[in-house]
Amino acid sequence: MIAKFEKELEEERENSLNVQKTLTRVTSEKNSALVRNAEVSQQIELIKQDMRRQERETNELMNKLTQLEEENAKLKQGVSLQQKLMNNINELEEQISEKNKTIKMLQLRLADMKKTLQQELRTPGNPSYHSDLLENNTAAILTPTQISTRTLPNIVKRDDEDVNFKYLKHVVLKFLTSREYEAQHLIKAISTLLKFTSEEEKLIQDTLEWRKSWFGSKPKYPGNTKSKNVTS
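^ Golgin subfamily A member 1, sequence as received from the core. Prediction below:
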């Protein structure tokens, strides 16, 4: 009987080690998924900005085309001038065609990026997927022999904190190395991770705007409006 219990105990120890290995692997995959999701979301936002810019330029070209057509209607008697206006119209139409092609390409890229993000959320790298996997494995392997699981929540907590720190580090690095208009889209993520107040989040936004502007005074920290300025 003792030998049998010792054998069962050894098997349970091996199962416990397997759970620890699974926990480490799942945590690593969770961290990678968070980083990939952040990068994909940022790329989607940049594509949206580019699309809006292309649409504005297209509208401007359409307005110019309308003006040229109106002028052409008034100056039909001048043959040479009319020919010049027609050439300009043709050039503008070609530009509009190119802009429309660019917008379509950006729309396809945006659809691909959204599809990629949705696939990321459905893969084993998704945090909710890992959470279910950990709960099922822990209940199935550790419960039969009543091995103490008091240390497991602490391990999970430490791993979650490590993942959050790595994700925060990744977002901060992106924020510090991005251009101003790219950094604007990371403010919300940083404010959430660092639990900024609405005033502190607005302070960061105002500071970025101040750095891009030639005029205006430097924003001040809300806690001390007399002397405590945000460092540039």
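Residues 2-147 form a domain with the Four Helix Bundle (Hemerythrin (Met), subunit A) fold (CATH 1.20.120).
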